[in-house]
Design brief:
Elements: E1 12-13, E2 21-26, E3 43-44, E4 47-51, E5 55-60, E6 67-72, E7 79-82, E8 85-88, H1 96-100, E9 104-107, E10 113-117, E11 134-135, E12 163-167, E13 172-178, H2 181-186, E14 190-196
Parallel strand pairs: 2-5, 4-14
Antiparallel strand pairs: 1-12, 2-3, 5-12, 6-11, 6-13, 7-8, 7-9, 9-10, 13-14
């Protein structure tokens, strides 16, 4: 049985004019080493911390990105399971397209279900409308599972892409994923935002390269 899911208030989306953490890069900053590759499908930093009520601005770089945000436990481990196996998010299958297009269940370090997504034929994006905090390119609950448009990313050092600013109003740890199936499943494009109260210690959330886990 899937664990119960907490009802969440949506984040406040505001104009990207200023932020408490304004330098988050969703995709490698321009100029990219190899565009549209595992080298450019990264979040920098991949583990950021802000106070409750603070904002994070994601600067979108490169093409075919969508941002999904989900609350998780503070443990860093994030796993995903196909119906036939359990593995770390980065795929090891030889057929990358088949791997990305499969159905997945992603759980956090406490084994709580975070994202449950159908196959690409039925759900084009990595998306779970019942548990998400934010989705830029997913589906609309109660409507046909059509894909939302990807964000427009920067194409050079002089042509900026979308900037998405999010205010976090509740303490906790949040998983940030690219909703493009190939970027998340095959290239491991995800990171974390830690939202702390004044009583929390920032050093509890040290930086971590999840690609090596």
């Amino acid at each position: 049985m899937s664990p119960e899911r907490e009802a969440l208030s949506p984040p406040n989306l505001i104009n990207p004019t200023a932020a408490d953490f304004g330098g988050a890069q969703f995709g490698q900053a321009q100029p990219q080493t190899i565009p549209n590759s595992v080298d450019s499908h990264i979040l920098m930093p991949d583990d950021a911390t802000v106070r409750v009520g603070g904002t994070v601005t994601f600067n979108v770089n490169g093409g075919s990105h969508g941002i999904g945000i989900y609350p998780v436990s503070k443990k860093r481990l994030v796993k995903t399971s196909m119906k036939t196996s359990v593995r770390v998010v980065r795929a090891s299958a030889n057929n990358a397209t088949l791997t990305a297009n499969s159905d997945y269940k992603i759980v956090d370090g406490r084994h709580h279900l975070i994202i449950e997504t159908d196959t690409a034929a039925n759900q084009p994006r990595i998306d779970d409308p019942f548990h998400r905090y934010l989705s830029t390119s997913g589906s609309i609950p109660g409507q046909p599972l059509t894909a939302g448009a990807f964000l427009t990313g920067s194409t050079s050092t002089t042509v900026p892409g979308h900037r998405i600013e999010i205010r976090f109003t509740k303490a906790g740890r949040y998983l940030v994923v690219c909703q493009n199936r190939g970027h998340l499943i095959n290239d491991h494009m995800f990171g974390f935002v830690n939202v702390v109260d004044n009583d929390d210690k920032d050093d509890d959330h040290g930086h971590n390269d999840h690609r090596d886990k």
